[in-house]
């Protein structure tokens, strides 16, 4: 029951946030230099006069500001993200076609980075001050300073161009027409490089955080008690320190979800991964603002989804957190 | 120990300072070393590094001097990184300070606002802002500032909340200082050190953000930047990989230097915390 209330209040909050983003979107369209109708129609030439007239009417650009705002937000509530004149399709359809690829990529990267980050952080904290700890921390520092897209490019160069181990382009082998398990394996093979390069940056963030948190918790009194009881080092680390140290890491992971989704734009661009990030990149060159704003609002929705997931994880890790949190 | 002694005893931080000073020197001296600027064609395209006299790093896809491009790129990276951080501080510090100091509904409102901006995927928002405002150095700097201030506001709020409960604040109140004066003259100065640490790390993040935007083609078309170089060389990576490789190394080194400095500052300004983390 408590969890149900908590989830409900989260969903209400999520809906309000999305509504606010819709309002922000509206103001952004109006902030763009020039006629909003032309902005929405995309680059000049992509839409003819009649279309712009139609847009002007649909968005009621001759009506008072608040009426325009209402119309725009109401459209978004009904999943109407506008029409992409460049691609000749509704934006919501374009996004729906590409969303699964992005979800697959970001979820995999999120999972890998969180699991490996925590594991490596625990390992580094257990060997604090030793050479292996120094090596891990230095590597994390290095990945933390590396631009995502550049790491992706270098990974393509090394593992795809030079070594030929993994495909560095696309979602599956074009024209192979694999089905069933073969297709799944093919997609997985294509997924490895994008997911790893997207995950590495966040892995280093989670690793540093886990390490610091583990070291901090290991100073607390209850750990001394556990040691005095005669528990072994690994048992204390796993059952006592890790359980307490992991909380700030999960919080951080929730906060970082936004960056992960944003980073997907870069990863998808480099790997020609057919997700919404790639769609956004293509729309940038075409100045297809409707699609850009559509991807923006959907990626914000994804971040909210990630936040809800981390919230649930939080509850599992720490049952003390009730509906009030 | 004095602050400088603590900072300079940190090897990593000193390496960071030396690298950063070098990058700053290159950025400042770019017009002197490369008077022709980064855009002029000087030789055949695709000359490999170390192959031609006077062109130590070779030429790019259009026969432009790669070394000159890197030097001018440093100017853009440092400028955008620094200015956007200052702007982000100008938004985040007052908001966080007011929220933490006055509490109640002011705090509630300010934090809802901050949370909202934290939920929005920041890179996606930066893309949207720059795409709509047209890519110029000003719009890029502004966009990066707009997506970077929320952590500042949260940090300053937390610091102010803890400082305002201290005794000297009560003393100031008894002495008859106005609330605003207490906040500005008594509380805020005591929150400076964590802000400095965060700011140095923010410059690093801002440089990464700027390079990512230029990589996607959202850079200022009149300013040579490292991200633009990587983006432009991307299509020829199979044959001429060093054209993408070199600017990336420049970014990694600069960002790493700033992160090392940030960590050094953190250790020097909060010796208690760092000892705990190192134990």
UniProtKB/TrEMBL annotation, chain A:
PROSITE patterns registered for this protein in UniProt: ABC_TM1
UniProt keywords, alphabetically: Cell membrane, Membrane, Transmembrane, Transmembrane helix, Transport
GO biological-process terms attached to the record: transmembrane transport
Source superkingdom: Bacteria
One cellular-component annotation, GO: plasma membrane
Membrane-spanning intervals of the chain: 103-126, 138-167, 187-206, 245-272, 292-314
CDD domains per UniProt: TM_PBP2 (cd06261)
Mode of membrane association: Multi-pass membrane protein
Annotated ABC transmembrane type-1 domain residues: 99-314
Main localization category: membrane
Stretch forming the signal peptide: none
Family the UniProt entry places it in: Belongs to the binding-protein-dependent transport system permease family.
Protein name per Swiss-Prot or TrEMBL: ABC transporter permease subunit
TrEMBL record, chain B:
Keywords: Cell membrane, Membrane, Peptide transport, Protein transport, Transmembrane, Transmembrane helix, Transport
Gene Ontology CC terms: plasma membrane
Alphabetical GO biological process terms: peptide transport; protein transport; transmembrane transport
TM ranges: 12-34, 78-102, 123-147, 195-219, 240-261
Subcellular location: Cell membrane
Membrane-related topology note: Multi-pass membrane protein
Classification via InterPro entries: BP-dependent_transpt_permease (IPR050366), MetI-like (IPR000515), MetI-like_sf (IPR035906), OppC_N (IPR025966)
Key word Protein transport present: yes
Classification via PROSITE patterns: ABC_TM1 (PS50928)
Keyword Transcription regulation (UniProt): no
Domain of life: Bacteria
Predominant location category: membrane
ABC transmembrane type-1 domain location: 74-262
Family according to the record: Belongs to the binding-protein-dependent transport system permease family.
PANTHER family for this protein: D,D-DIPEPTIDE TRANSPORT SYSTEM PERMEASE PROTEIN DDPC-RELATED, OLIGOPEPTIDE TRANSPORT SYSTEM PERMEASE PROTEIN APPC
Protein name as it appears in the record: ABC transporter permease subunit
Species, as recorded: Pseudooceanicola pacificus
């Amino acid at each position: 029951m408590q969890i149900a209330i908590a989830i409900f209040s989260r969903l209400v909050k999520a809906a309000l946030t999305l509504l606010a983003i819709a309002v922000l979107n509206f103001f952004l369209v109006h902030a763009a230099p020039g006629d909003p109708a032309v902005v929405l129609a995309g680059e000049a030439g992509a839409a003819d006069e009649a279309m712009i007239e139609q847009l002007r009417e649909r968005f009621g650009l001759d009506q008072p500001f608040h009426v325009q705002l209402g119309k725009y937000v109401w459209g978004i509530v009904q999943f109407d993200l506008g029409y992409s004149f460049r691609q000749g399709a509704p934006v919501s359809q374009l996004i729906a076609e590409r969303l699964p690829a992005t979800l697959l990529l970001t979820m995999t990267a999120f999972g890998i980075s969180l699991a490996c980050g925590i594991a490596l952080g625990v390992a580094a904290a257990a060997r604090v001050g030793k050479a292996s700890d120094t090596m891990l921390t230095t590597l994390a520092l290095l990945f933390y300073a590396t631009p995502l897209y550049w790491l992706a490019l270098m990974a393509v160069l090394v593992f795809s161009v030079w070594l030929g181990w993994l495909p560095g382009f696309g979602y599956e082998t074009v024209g192979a027409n694999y089905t069933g398990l073969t297709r799944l394996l093919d997609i997985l093979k294509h997924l490895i490089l994008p997911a790893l390069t997207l995950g590495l940056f966040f892995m280093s963030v989670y690793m540093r955080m886990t390490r610091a948190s583990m070291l901090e918790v290991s100073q607390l009194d209850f750990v001394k008690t556990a040691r005095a009881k005669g528990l072994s080092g690994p048992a204390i680390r796993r059952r006592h320190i890790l359980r307490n140290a992991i909380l700030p890491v999960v919080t951080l992971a929730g906060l970082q979800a936004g960056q992960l989704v944003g980073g997907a734009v870069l990863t998808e661009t480099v790997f020609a991964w057919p997700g919404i990030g790639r769609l956004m990149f293509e729309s940038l060159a075409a100045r297809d603002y409707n699609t850009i704003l559509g991807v923006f609002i959907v990626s914000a929705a994804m971040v909210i989804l990630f936040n809800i997931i981390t919230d649930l994880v939080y509850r599992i890790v720490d049952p003390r957190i009730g509906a009030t949190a | 120990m004095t602050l400088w002694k603590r900072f300079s005893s940190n090897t990593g931080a000193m390496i960071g300072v030396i690298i950063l000073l070098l990058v700053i020197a290159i950025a400042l001296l770019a017009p002197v070393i490369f008077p022709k600027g980064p855009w002029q064609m000087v030789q055949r395209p695709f000359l490999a590094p170390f192959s031609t006299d006077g062109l130590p790093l070779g030429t790019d896809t259009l026969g432009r001097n790669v070394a000159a491009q890197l030097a001018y790129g440093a100017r853009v990276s440092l400028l955008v990184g620094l200015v956007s951080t200052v702007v982000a501080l100008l938004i985040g510090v007052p908001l966080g300070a007011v929220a933490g100091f006055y509490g109640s509904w002011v705090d509630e409102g300010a934090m809802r606002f901050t949370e909202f901006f934290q939920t929005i995927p920041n890179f996606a928002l930066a893309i949207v802002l720059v795409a709509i405002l047209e890519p110029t150095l000003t719009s890029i700097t502004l966009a990066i500032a707009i997506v970077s201030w929320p952590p500042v506001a949260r940090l300053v709020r937390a610091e102010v909340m803890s400082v305002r409960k201290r005794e000297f604040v009560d003393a100031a109140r008894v002495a008859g200082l106005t609330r605003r004066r207490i906040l500005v003259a008594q509380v805020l100065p005591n929150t400076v050190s964590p802000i400095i640490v965060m700011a140095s790390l923010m410059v690093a993040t801002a440089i990464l953000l700027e390079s990512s935007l230029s990589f996607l083609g959202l850079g200022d078309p009149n300013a040579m930047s490292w991200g633009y170089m990587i983006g432009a060389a991307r299509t020829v990576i199979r044959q001429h990989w060093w054209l993408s490789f070199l600017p990336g190394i420049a970014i990694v080194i600069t960002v790493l230097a700033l992160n090392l400095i940030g960590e050094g500052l953190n250790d020097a300004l909060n010796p208690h915390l760092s000892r705990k983390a190192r134990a």
